[in-house]
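step: validate -> pass
step: tokenize input -> pass
step: predict -> running
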Amino acid sequence: QLQASGGGLVQPGGSLRLSCAASGFTLDYYAIGWFRQAPGKEREFVGALRRSLGSTYFADSVKGRFTISRDNAKNTVYLQMNSLKPEDTAVYYCTARINWITDYRNAQHYDYWGQGTLVTVSS
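step: predict -> pass
step: emit ->
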């Protein structure tokens, strides 16, 4: 099970850190994906963390502003979001799958999903 938290209301230009805690399995063994869905829009890829190499991959819309990190001791993954924009407003989901795949931007490939946490960027 994945539990996402850390969402909230933030002003444009601000920062938030989302957390994704796992229970029942060890996140270090899994590839991680972050997705988001804005009101009235389709779910979209935000970023991914490849376990074996520790590499991260991001959508162009968030590249340079968002980072992903992992704390194995806490069995938690984080999405650090900086320089937030109103268009970042969405429900954010963390996901996991056991093996890395090249089609990591496709949400259908992920087996475990958190419940989502709402991020609102507004003045």
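step: describe -> The chain has a mean pLDDT of 94.
step: cleanup -> pass
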